[in-house]
Amino acid sequence: VGCLVVTAPADGRSEIKRLWTDPEFRGRRIASDLLGAALAHTAESGAGTVRLSVWNWRTEAIALYERFGFTVTESWDDRDQLVCMERAV
After folding, report:
1. Which of 4, 25, 79, 83 is least enclosed by beta carbons within 10 angstroms?
2. What's the pLDDT band for 78 if we cut at 50, 70, 90?
3. Residue 41: which domain range?
4. Is 82 helix (H, G, I), strand (E, B) or coil?
């Protein structure tokens, strides 16, 4: 019903590459549970920071990331309309 991909730490940082929930199952905290598990995993793996990027029109996803403590940071990607976010683990 959902998936999340997180990279192994490199230079003290992991990156969330994908977070997806089947539309039929949205609104059931699946994305929140996956994100919480990923953050716990990154802490156990030694990462000090987790980052991600999200399209600026994905307002619900941005709100979810903000609830988990992610803040907008300087972009590491040149694609227009891409928001880069990070948080300490």
Report:
1. 79
2. confident
3. 2-88
4. strand
